[in-house]
Design goal:
- This is Co-chaperone protein DjlA.
- Homodimer.
- It is found in: Cell inner membrane.
- It holds the Pfam family DnaJ.
- By secondary structure, the chain is mainly α.
- The chain is 73% helix and 0% strand.
- Helix 3 runs parallel beside helix 7 and helix 7 runs antiparallel to helix 8.
- The longest helix has 30 residues.
- It starts with a helix and ends with a helix.
């Protein structure tokens, strides 16, 4: 009751009759003990987002490194390649000092025998309900960790499937994301090879190691896709991986570089397909 009364009063003060009805609605949510649903739907964060973002950023950061640590121990022991990949990952993000220590602590927590991945994913999913782009990026980061040694072991794939399920991602969409990342991974490997061998010939060298099939797979498409379909897929993926938007939804700013790199790969694939048309 008091939620509706106070909500109506404050709403009328700041927004007259529109504010009154908005205040009544918000007060009703609290009176009915629906605070959790209210938060998941955006709550006051929809109007005043700053405090909520920092809380979500901390959760994204810790959950991400904890699950990465769990994947690193997927075969029952710590995979040294995964540890080096996690360290490189932290360096790529520019983590230093306390931030790096926090990442290491979360990673080590994920390696512990008593770590509950299901509980971690459940909490993550509750706090990021409705923010599917961030959920998808979280899954993509875990796939990237699993691929750090150049291939995907059976235990790693099983774990990734569990991560996808815990996040509410369907098997079909998981397969789509996995296939797209495999194309990204192959593209980056080719880029590295070209740089090492000094075989870049143009200013657009980032796409010189790419073939049509690979470019299509980066966009999540198959051979035969027409220009309109390619453009639609490109715009959708660029919107999903837009760094500023993801940060505003709760992506830690340290991880903005990951979204930027993915956007660059998507852009390179699209530019290649446009030139090859």
């Amino acid at each position: 009751m008091w939620g509706k009364v106070l909500g109506a009063c404050f709403g009328f003060m700041f927004g007259r009759f529109f504010g009154l009805f908005l205040g009544l609605f918000i007060g009703h949510l609290f009176d009915k003990s629906l605070k959790q649903d209210f938060d998941n739907a955006g709550g006051f964060r929809g109007f005043f987002n700053n405090d909520g973002v920092s809380e979500r950023q901390a959760l994204f950061f810790s959950s991400c490194f904890a699950v990465m640590g769990h994947i690193a121990k997927s075969n029952g022991r710590v995979n040294e390649l995964h540890i080096r990949a996690a360290t490189a990952f932290m360096e790529e993000m520019g983590l230093t000092g306390e931030d790096k220590r926090e990442a290491q602590l979360a990673f080590n927590a994920g390696k512990a025998d008593d770590f509950s991945m299901s509980a971690t994913l459940r909490e993550f999913r509750e706090h990021f309900a409705g923010r599917f782009d961030l959920i998808q990026l979280f899954l993509e980061i875990q796939i990237q960790m699993a691929f750090s040694d150049g291939h995907l072991a059976a235990q790693e794939k099983t774990l990734l499937e569990q991560v996808a399920k815990g996040l509410g991602v369907s098997k079909t969409h998981f397969s789509f994301i996995l296939k797209r990342y495999q194309a990204e991974f192959a593209f980056r490997q080719q880029q590295h090879k070209f740089h090492q061998q000094h075989q870049q010939r143009t200013s657009g060298g980032a796409s010189s190691g790419m073939g049509r099939a690979q470019a299509l797979h980066i966009l999540g498409l198959e051979e035969g896709a027409d220009a309109a379909t390619i453009k639609k897929a490109y715009r959708k993926l660029m919107a999903q991986h837009h760094p500023d938007k993801l940060v505003s939804q709760g992506l830690p700013e340290h991880m903005m570089r990951l979204a930027q790199k993915k956007s660059q790969d998507i852009q390179a694939a699209y530019e290649y397909l446009k030139k090859a048309a």
